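CATEGORY: protein folding

GOAL: derive structure tokens
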Amino acid sequence: MKKWIQLLLFSVLIVALSYAIISNASKQKAEAKSEDIVLQTSSGEQLALPNEGSYIVNFWATYCPPCEREMPSFKAAYEILQSHTIELYAVNVEEPTRLVNQYLTKFDLPFPILLDRQGQLKESYEILTLPTTLFLQDGKVVHTVKGELTEQELLTLTQKFLY
């Protein structure tokens, strides 16, 4: 009976270690890949996410109602974020530039809008749902929110993870 328990504990340990190794390798792969990705902004400039500092990346699309609802919250919070030297990047996922620019006329957004036309950044961070917001510190994801954020939630999470 003791051999059975030892075998079971050994199996659980192997599974747990395998999961930890795979999970860590996946995170390192995403962080390394994102450093090499340069995206176009909605105004036509080229921009890569920084490797240093605190910043927020929000993945969104024009067809996503929760994404549209949270845009005013991000706009309202942006000035406060800037006062704490925290940048906000809104990354449109896999939509044509013209469509995105037409959509953006509804909002007067002060933060950079990046166009992930091929979905490279989305894939590197393994984004499956929209909206998804990442809180990053020195290029590493410290917190992820899947779903819509209010201005207060955004500021509270920023204070918790990035100040």
